[in-house]
């Protein structure tokens, strides 16, 4: 596994080589409608309606891990959760004997999991796409917990649930946090019960004291405040949360049974986060900086265009992620033909699955006043 220090050193070296030769950085061009952004890194509202948006524009080669206080929030700590009581996770369903897991049971199994990206499946605000962040996690791998669950014959799936009691009546979501996985989905993804985030105990708004994390899957599957693990069979109904997020996780309609759901995995995706203005030999040049994440393998190339009448141009990813679990940076030097409004659209290489990029999901607009 690549260490964080090695990763940052590699990032810095690659980005330094990619600087505009002899140029001088003279500013940043805002994306269209950026003035309408909500305040970044500020928790707004409460309960299921709570949101905290991460400002992605500041991502650089030496700051690809999001501090805990700036990590996005989709649902805040449930006010009906009694934090003074000892925590336990009920183990039920198709098991040889119902039991409970305490934090002390998890502690000997906790391992460093490295950095990876978490993105809300509803990360759809084109002004910022701020419901995504990356952190370094530690937790107990699900594969090491399986024997302790004592599955009974017929147990083929796992329903993982979290406490979701909020006093405020929600306007934007439905109460009830749970998702059903196959055992193989959890083990092959490297899922774990997290207890630490960026070297600290989980903050309350991020699932304290324990949350499920499924690398490479959307955040709606990464259940916070985990309090129940149930072993179930192939006839298990889809949960309310699965049905609510069916469209956002690219399901075919709203399946009735959990087995009819395809994995809520993130395909390869890319997003511009910053447009830098450079002065090179007394001429303005522009550099688009972005992030790339998701998919089954580390991307080496992307394609970009700025107007629908133009073809896509391929380019190399200058700072590829160290693994598909996390994000990397890309840059593209751009000389607009004339002032005007442009739309930045990314595509993967031919033959690589990207349901969201195929839908132009992460398109961002920018107005260029000087060329």
Could you list some keywords that capture this structure?
371 residues; mainly beta; five-stranded mixed β-sheet; five-stranded antiparallel β-sheet; 6 helices; 18 strands; 11% helix; elongated
- Write down the Rg: 22 Å
User: For the residues shown, what is the average pLDDT?
Assistant: 93
Largest sheet: 5 strands, mixed
Helix content: 10-25%
Continuous helix count: 6
Shape: elongated
Order of helices and strands: HEEEHEEHEEHEEEEHEEEEEEHE
Number-wise, the strands total: 18
Please list the strands of the largest sheet in the order they lie side by side. Answer: 3-2-11-6-7
Strand content: 25-35%
Uncertain regions: pLDDT < 50 for 5+ in a row? 5-18
Q: Termini separation (Å)?
A: 44 Å
Structural class: mainly beta
